[in-house]
Design goal:
Shape: globular
Number of helices: 3
Strand content: 35-45%
Largest sheet: 5 strands, antiparallel
Radius of gyration: 20 Å
Structural class: alpha+beta
Order of helices and strands: HEEEEEEEEHEEH
Distance between the termini: 42 Å
Strand order of the largest sheet: 5-2-1-9-10
Oligomer: single chain
Length: about 160
């Protein structure tokens, strides 16, 4: 094999690898947080890979994992807010009717066929300690919701 042909094959291989890297999905594909907006508890999803979609969201009791509150639908916007104990967002329906009770830890998750996004594990007491407009992210860090939305998808 001559040098020109080898160089062409190497260049082709490097180009293909660069194309795959450039087209890969963001990491993470989505992030979630739970907080208080001043009038209600909320969960917020931020889709980093806006080509993806989530179809199920739930708060599950830590002890047994059964959902205490859940919605089923489809994300349309890259940012979706879910109010706890109120109507679901547009194009979502309440799948498990319920609410959160005191002194019980809850985990927040959102799923699709091949994607699971885990939010924090929280109690109502922790949510009550938050200032208005603040969320707790999956790492347990409390921050203003605007900061979370701006920085959540950064590597």
């Amino acid at each position: 094999m001559n040098r020109a042909r080898v160089a062409a094959l190497v260049a082709l291989g490097l180009g293909a690898a660069a194309a795959v890297t450039a087209c890969s999905s963001p990491d993470p594909a989505a992030v979630a947080a739970v907080g208080f907006d001043g009038s209600a508890y909320m969960a917020v999803l931020r889709m980093c890979d806006e080509g993806r979609s989530l179809t199920y969201v739930q708060f599950a009791e830590g002890a047994d994992g059964d959902p205490a509150l859940a919605w089923i639908g489809r994300t349309v916007e890259p940012i979706t807010f879910f109010r706890i104990d109120s109507e679901p967002p547009d194009n979502w329906v309440l799948d498990v009717d319920g609410g959160l009770v005191s002194d019980v830890p809850y985990s927040f998750t959102a799923t699709a066929d091949d994607l699971t996004v885990a939010g924090p594990e929280v109690t109502l007491a922790e949510l009550n300690d938050l200032e208005a407009g603040t969320v707790i992210d999956a790492a347990g860090t409390a921050q203003p919701v605007d900061d979370f939305l701006e920085q959540a998808c950064s590597p």
